[in-house]
Design a protein that fits this description.
Radius of gyration: 18 Å
CATH superfamily: Vaccinia Virus protein VP39
Helix content: 25-40%
Number of domains: 1
InterPro entries: SAM-dependent_MTases_sf, Thiol_S-MT
Bound molecules: S-adenosylmethionine
Largest sheet: 7 strands, mixed
Structural class: alpha/beta
Organism: Lepidopterella palustris CBS 459.81
Shape: globular
CATH class: Alpha Beta
CATH topology: Rossmann fold
Protein name: S-adenosyl-L-methionine-dependent methyltransferase
Pfam family, one: Methyltransf_23
Distance between the termini: 43 Å
Strand content: 15-25%
CATH architecture: 3-Layer(aba) Sandwich
Strand order of the largest sheet: 3-2-1-4-5-7-6
Mean pLDDT: 94
Number of strands: 7
C-alpha cells in the first residue's frame, strides 16, 4: 500500500466522528438539560446519528457479510440490530423466528418498520434489552423464548454485526451468547476490532485508533470501542473444548477500523 492510499482509510473515521459530534450538539440544543444526564445524551445522540446515517453506512458491508446473512435460518438472535438496516440481507423464508435485542428504544419503530418491509411479518420480535446476560435473559424469558430450552441452548444462529464493540464486558457477554446457541448452532459475526498490527495490520492505524479514542469516539459513537480484541474473545468463548469450527477473516486489516468477518460453529 502506498502512503497516499493510507490517508483516506485512516482518516475516514474522522469524518464519522465529526458527524457524531454534530448530532450530539444538535441533540443537546434540542434538550439542553441532557447535559446533566450524559448517558441519556449519549443514547439519544447516537440514535439520531444512526437513524439518519445507518442506511447509508450499510450499503456496503465488509467481506462476505451479505453472503453469510443470506444463510441465516431457524431460530435467530440478532444482537443490536439498530433500526434494521441489515434485515433486507436475510432470507425470511428460512427463518422461523428472529429476536432483535436492541437496547435503544428510539430505534425500535424503524426496526419494526424495516422488519415488515423485509418480509418478516410476525416472525420478528424486537426486545428492549442488550446482549449482556443480565439484560438479555430476562427479556427472552418475558418473550417466552426460553420455554423450550431445557438447558441446551435455544438459537440456531446468533448474529453479531457491528455490535460487540459496544456491549459491556465483551468477554462475558460473548460467552453468554455462546451458551444460548444450540449444539451445532452458528455465531455469525461482522465486527470491527483492534488493529492486528503485530500480524497483518499497521502500526499507524493502531496509533490512529488511540487518537480517535482520546478524541472521544466511545462517547460520541454510542459506547463503541475501536480497540477491542473481539476475535480473541470470540475464539475463547467456547472454553477448553473449543468451537467445532472457526472461519474468521480480517477485512482491511491496515485501516483504523479493521473488521473480522465469518462464522463460528458450536460443537454438536
Ligand atoms: C453500529 S449499530 C449496528 C446496527 C446493526 N447491527 C447494523 O450493523 O446495521 C450498533 C447497535 O448496537 C446497539 N447496542 C448498543 N449497546 C448494546 C448492547 N449492550 N447490546 C446490544 N446492542 C447494543 C446500538 O443501540 C445500535 O443499535
Amino acid at each position: 500500500m502506498a502512503i497516499a492510499d493510507y490517508i483516506p482509510v485512516l482518516l475516514r473515521p474522522a469524518l464519522l466522528l465529526t458527524t457524531a459530534v454534530y448530532h450530539c450538539i444538535m441533540t443537546l440544543l434540542q434538550n439542553p438539560t441532557l447535559i446533566f444526564n450524559l448517558s441519556t445524551l449519549q443514547e439519544k445522540s447516537f440514535a439520531r446519528l444512526w437513524s439518519q446515517n445507518g442506511e447509508a453506512m450499510s450499503v456496503e458491508m465488509p467481506g462476505p457479510t451479505f453472503a453469510l446473512l443470506k444463510t441465516v435460518s431457524g431460530t435467530v438472535l440478532d444482537v443490536g440490530p439498530g433500526s434494521g438496516e441489515q434485515l433486507p440481507r436475510f432470507d425470511p423464508s428460512i427463518v422461523t423466528i428472529m429476536y432483535g435485542a436492541e437496547p435503544s428504544i428510539n430505534l425500535h419503530a424503524g426496526l419494526l418498520k424495516n422488519a415488515e418491509k423485509a418480509g418478516f411479518g410476525g416472525k420478528y420480535k424486537a426486545l428492549h434489552c442488550g446482549g449482556e446476560p443480565e439484560s438479555l435473559i430476562p427479556a427472552l424469558a418475558k418473550a417466552g423464548a426460553l420455554a423450550e430450552s431445557k438447558g441446551q441452548g435455544i438459537f440456531d444462529v446468533v448474529v453479531c454485526v457491528r455490535v460487540l464493540c459496544g456491549v459491556p464486558r465483551p468477554e462475558e457477554t460473548i460467552e453468554g451468547l455462546y451458551k444460548l446457541l444450540k449444539p451445532g448452532g452458528r455465531m455469525i459475526v461482522c465486527e470491527h476490532v483492534i488493529n492486528p498490527w503485530q500480524e497483518s495490520g499497521s502500526v499507524l492505524a493502531r496509533v490512529m485508533q488511540v487518537v480517535y479514542t482520546v478524541l472521544g469516539w466511545p462517547f460520541f459513537m454510542g459506547n463503541c470501542h475501536v480497540d477491542r480484541d473481539t476475535k480473541k474473545y470470540l475464539q475463547e468463548a467456547a472454553g477448553k473444548d473449543g468451537w467445532a469450527s472457526v472461519k474468521l477473516e480480517y477485512v482491511e486489516p491496515k485501516t483504523a477500523i479493521p473488521f473480522v468477518v465469518g462464522e463460528l460453529v458450536k460443537r454438536s
